[in-house]
Amino acid sequence: MKEENDLKLEPLSNLTMTDRVEGKLGKYFKDKGLEPGDPIPKEVEMAEALGVSRNVVREALSRFKMLGMIETKKRRGMIMAQPDIMNSLERVMDPFILSSHDRKEIFELRLVLEMGIAHLLFARSNEESCQELEKIVQREQRARSEKERVLCDLEFHSTLYKIAGNDILRRFQKLLVPIFDYELAYELKLKEKAPQGKVTHQELLEILKCGTPSEFQNGMYEHLRPHFDRIE
Amino acid sequence: MKEENDLKLEPLSNLTMTDRVEGKLGKYFKDKGLEPGDPIPKEVEMAEALGVSRNVVREALSRFKMLGMIETKKRRGMIMAQPDIMNSLERVMDPFILSSHDRKEIFELRLVLEMGIAHLLFARSNEESCQELEKIVQREQRARSEKERVLCDLEFHSTLYKIAGNDILRRFQKLLVPIFDYELAYELKLKEKAPQGKVTHQELLEILKCGTPSEFQNGMYEHLRPHFDRIE
């Protein structure tokens, strides 16, 4: 509740005209219950109804197009579309433009996902996928440089996500990797080797073959232990 | 490698001029190594350099503004900014516009997060946060309707994310909830009660107080068992 002696003046909105039109249109699409495939009104009609220039409406629509929420069809004009939800996230996930706070949180988020995928993994792994992991582990054991080893490490974990069989999760993990590495490199600075936990990839693979999701989670925790230690 | 008898004709790009300018500018910002706070060239200069109209450049810049990657400052013109990474994701996460495939994947993603947060939770929970959970459990036990119970359920899980102390994770979970519920409602259709696992919120709280992250994960799995059964 506002206090009595508050000035009754509200701050002027610092939204641009495009921001405001974008907001209005978003609400309109929602209120009308428009679904993918449904046509939307013409640019000129919307401009007239909102009392703004066509340029402003075009700019706002361009944002929805970028999000994948609308698309232009030949002869049908603009229709609502099914957005690719990871698309816009992929555009902003750049370690060089994120704040250190966000990078830290993303570092943690990756740990959360690594711990959480165990059940999907056990539900969907098969002989073929275990062989794929086996090959990566063998390559890792033969690796001659730290760089080669790090690449095998990355491949092992990416393959786990592939096996887990969830595209959104996989794309999400892919986005997190560069941020995770950046954050890690920043912490390590001049150390030559990335920290390694007690449980190896080989051992994780054995658990996946013969163990339980719970054992896998415990193994993964030990594997990622140096990272968890930073949090705890 | 392309086959020899491939026609050497590449398909015409179906990108709009704005899409292409957006791509060019994104690459330019990256190649120049621009960071938050750095100024970017004037609209008119970019339009001249790219050989396109100012309107097209303005539309492309508007997209970057929407993503929070650039902002306009008084007297300084446009500068690079620190985007809010969840912002654009929040705009498209609407169960009514997502495909059923995406909804299914998001359903799983939520299960992955619930399983994965155990260690963050144990690292950051304290007496105060346990009391907060305790109150929710008590309200749940007194609940007189299924609706009231479902609200307590939601609050219990949201509070876990709050305790885990990671904003991105928390906002992410918040986004997933409506999709999860939609998917669940769709599955349940006319059933009156949401399926419940063997382990209760009360028991999860006890584990958080006196147990280990691994016990918590096992408990959470049993708690969410009816949902996992759909996957496995």
Helix-strand layout with pairing:
Two copies of one chain form a homodimer.
Chain A: H1 17-31, H2 43-50, H3 54-67, E1 70-73, E2 77-80, H4 87-92, H5 100-116, H6 118-124, H7 127-142, H8 146-164, H9 167-188, H10 201-210, H11 213-223, H12 225-231
Antiparallel strand pairs in A: 1-2
Largest sheet of chain A: 2 strands, antiparallel
Poorly predicted runs of chain A: none
Oligomer: homodimer
Computed structural class of chain A: mainly alpha
Q: What is the molecular shape of chain A? A: elongated
CATH class of the largest domain in chain A: Mainly Alpha
Question: CATH superfamily of the largest domain in chain A, please?
Answer: GntR ligand-binding domain-like
- What's the end-to-end separation of chain A, in Å? 39 Å
Mean pLDDT of chain A: 87
Rg calculated over all Cα atoms of chain A: 25 Å
Number of strands of chain A: 2
CATH topology of the largest domain in chain A: Four Helix Bundle (Hemerythrin (Met), subunit A)
